[in-house]
Specification:
Elements lengths: L2 H24 L10 E2 L8 E7 L6 H10 L5 E4 L1 H6 L3 H7 L3 E4 L12 H17 L18 H8 L4 E2 L15 H11 L5 E4 L6 H16 L3 E3 L1 H6 L2
Parallel strand pairs: 1-5, 2-3, 2-6, 2-7, 3-4
Helix pairs in contact: 7-8
The protein binds zinc ion.
Length: 235
Amino acid sequence: MRRLPIVLLAAVLVVAASAGAAWKVSGSRTIQFFGEHVDRVATTEKVIALTFDDGPDEATDEILALLAERDVAATFYLNGAGMADHPESGPKIVAAGHELGNHTWSHRRMLLVSPSAVADQIEPTDERIRAAGWDGPITFRPPYGKKLFVLPWYLARHDRLTVMWDVSVETFGDTPQSAAEIADATVAAAEPGSIVLLHPWNDRRHVREATGVVIDRLRADGYRFVTVSDLLSGT
Ligand SMILES: [Zn+2]
């Protein structure tokens, strides 16, 4: 009987380690259990895809203006709920030459979800994206970068590409960063083929400011900016 506690302890450790590993994988940019996913593209060409998560909201015009000023095409991972609240935003973004991607309806954390809950997050958002006029492939980006079993399984079954990122300096940090700090860290981390994630919406004026600086500095360094679809297809 003296062995039992040891066996129990071992079992507890295995379960804890598995849960820890699952948590790690769920937020991994490079590991996914099912389906195709990408976090950057291997290339020596100086191309970068700028991607903007969340929204849309009342900052749409300001973001579009800063991109138009610089003649840059980007990819917007929008929430369906944001498109419903701001129905003019999606069509404006598409008309300006940008790509739309799916970032779920309500930005729900997609762990421990049922297939029907996943469908409820993804399908109506696709409908909004189509109604906004985007007719290219709709890639998917999970809220908080979180995905484990059901979500990737659903995405694989629907032949849906998950697009993560390799550069993101303002996503999960607790410390407030200035526009200059965000710009410096983004420019330092960017490489040929990078997918850069920024959250420029709402009261995040410092991120919008940083976005302009990032574009100007990377362009001065010889980079050009393409949509995710163009990055993936090598055009
Ligand atoms: Zn998000």
